[in-house]
Amino acid sequence: MSQVVAPQPRVVVAFHSGYGHTAVLAEAVQRGAEKAGAHVTFVAVDAITDEQWHELDTADAVIFGAPTYMGGASAGFHAFAEATSGRYLNGTWADKIAAGFTNSASKSGDKLNTLNFLAAFAAQHHMIWVGLGLAPGWNALQASENDLNRLGFWVGAGAQTPQDGGIETVHEADIATAEHLGARVTAQAAALTAGRAALAEVTV
Ligand SMILES: Cc1cc2nc3c(=O)[nH]c(=O)nc-3n(C[C@H](O)[C@H](O)[C@H](O)COP(=O)(O)O)c2cc1C
After folding, report:
1. What is the ipTM of this complex?
2. What CATH number is associated with residue 192?
3. What's the angle, vertex CA 15, arms to CA 11 and CA 16, rounded to 5?
4. Nearest to 117 by CA among 159, 74, 86
5. In this protein, which residues make up the domain named Flavodoxin-like (predicted)?
6. Ligand 1 pocket list (CB less than 6 A)
7. Residue 93, phi then psi, degrees to nearest 5
8. What is the CA(110)–ligand 1 centre distance, in A?
9. Domain assignment of residue 5, yes or no
10. Which residues of the chain fall below pLDDT 50?
11. pLDDT digits (tens, 9 = 90+) for 140-163
């Protein structure tokens, strides 16, 4: 069998951020993905362009991000989600990898609802959901709030920023956790594209 050279994974970070905190995490996701070898497109979904829609449609993986507002994803993200209904009907994003992150002011803040919504949104598009892939941090006597995954999520990356803090108060551990998510998704996208390329070479 001939050797397969996998193309560089194309990853889109598609996020909403009303006040900039979630945007800091989106930048961390982008950094993690780029360090892991992805070509990344950074998309603020409330200002999305036609070119960025095209990037979404041709990506190998999409990492969705939204702040948690009123116990769920922000209206800005929901407007974007609803604008994808044509793509849902056409299966445009089927079999792409997906993952998600959120941020809220409270340690819980009901942000699991947001991650679960992002996973359901991806499932509606027939995407392949990748969880965070980290053990929970900060949950034992010797653990620290500086642990990766300090808030103990599995479905995606969850972050907490004080409601009265500026964007510089986004927690370093949450930033590192977001970087991890970007790297993990890139690794999975690379494996999937290489596997699909290898399968295309197989003759039966
Ligand atoms: C309309 C609104 C609703 C919010 N609802 C929640 C909530 O349900 N739970 C929570 O912990 N924080 C809540 N927050 C706080 C935000 O999640 C928090 O400030 C977050 O850092 C905002 O992210 P952003 O700067 O990316 O918009 C809410 C903030 C706003 C403006």
Report:
1. 0.99
2. 3.40.50.360
3. 170
4. 74
5. 11-159
6. 17-22, 67-71, 103-106, 109-110, 161, 163
7. -105, 10
8. 10
9. no
10. none
11. 999 999 999 999 999 999 999 999
